[in-house]
Amino acid sequence: MKKNIEKKQIPVFKPLIEKEEIAAAVESLELGWLGMGSYVKKFEESIEKVCEFQPDDDRHAVAVSTGHAAIHLSLMMIGVGPGDEVITPSFNNAADFQAIRACGAEPVFVDIVESTLCIDVSKIEELITEKTKCIIAMDYDMFMCDHKSLAEISRRTGIPILHDAAHSFGSKYDGRPTGNQHQYTIFSFDPVKAVTCIDGGSIIVQGADQVGKLHAKRLIGMTQPAAQMYTNSRAWTYDIEELGFRYHMANLHAAVGIVQIQKLDKIRTTRQKACMKYYEGLSGIDWLVAPMGNISEINPFLYYIRILNDRRDELRKHMKEQGVDTGIHWQSGHTFSYLRDCRRGSLDVTEKIAGQILSLPLHSKMKSKTIHRIIDSIKSFNG
Ligand SMILES: Cc1ncc(COP(=O)(O)O)c(C=O)c1O
Fold first, then answer.
1. Ligand 1, closest atom to CA 188?
2. How far apart are CA 24 and CA 49, in angstroms?
3. pLDDT tens digits along 107-149
4. Which stretches within the chain are classed as H helix?
5. Does the predicted model carry a pTM greater than 0.90?
6. Best substitution site from 13, 73, 93, 100 to test ligand 1's pocket, by max atoms within 8 Å of Cβ?
7. Interior/surface letters 329-343, b for 16+ CB within 10 angstroms, e for the rest
8. Mean pLDDT of all residues in the chain?
9. Count of CB atoms situated within 10 Å of the CB of 320
10. Closest residue (by CA) to atom 8 of ligand 1?
11. Spacing, Cα 233 to ligand 1 middle (Å)
């Protein structure tokens, strides 16, 4: 009986783990080299292929244990340290705020644009001071930031952009894959992302010297060559020149990630179609906003709606009773007790949408009838 109820519940996230992922995981375990090794190299090469890097770009993927680790190391590479400030949307993942604080720096909260929930570029420059070391720009769900304007602000002010593309691996901006827009990009492949490797992340950097530094930083500072570890062996002597963390990726995770990337086209198409179905099914309802942009080049992470009648939590309860789980991405940074004293600009849109946003289930394999069941559960709410 219990099993039946569980079967009917539609989760917000559902990882696509099929026989190929399981076979790859078993194969990597049978290799007997559990740590960072040949699978990690292949995973990095697969990421670079998705990013369509050309030799002249000199851009490289460095795989790490999580997206959070990728942000932390990127900020360290930028030189963010005690007394510095990093501008970030308050409407962002806690991983970004904690990575800033882990560097001893302070987040400065900027607002978002209502139509995309991405950073409002027109409100960045008023927040810049001599302490500003970095601007974090995060693509949200199926929307991309205004990367052209961000690159222009960076050029004008000399402040680097850290592109948090945790949601947009496999998407394109103006025809170019994410990973090509700024000096630093990070991806997340955590359990709920469209492309997962169980847990993992990647930094995209330019230049062999940067790659070398990151290789040491992800290996508690040890300078032993990644090239050797990629042959499933290790050096026994090395130097430690800088601060580092145990942030490297394991073969098992990389093995799953490689197979997921092989399915990227299928994953993207399924998720795009699901978003379109949500949009078509929900756009006539006057008490909610069902967003849509041009998603032909987007690999959507989530589909969110905005509930305009102050009854979001009632709707969540109603949907739960109908067997549909929903999520909230996210609580804003400035509302957390740890971060409430951080400097900020006006956060009008952030405040406005905080009680409205609702994430609907989005899976890489999703039947039409599942989406219709979710749409029906919303329509049956007396809004
Ligand atoms: C925008 C954003 N940045 C960073 C992260 C952190 O990634 P990870 O969970 O891999 O540490 C997430 C995770 O959901 C995220 O959504």
1. 10
2. 19
3. 999 999 999 999 999 999 999 999 999 999 999 999 999 999 9
4. 2-8, 19-31, 38-50, 67-78, 94-102, 147-157, 208-217, 226-229, 251-262, 264-282, 312-321, 348-354, 368-379
5. yes
6. 93
7. bbebbbeeeebeebe
8. 96
9. 13
10. 67
11. 30
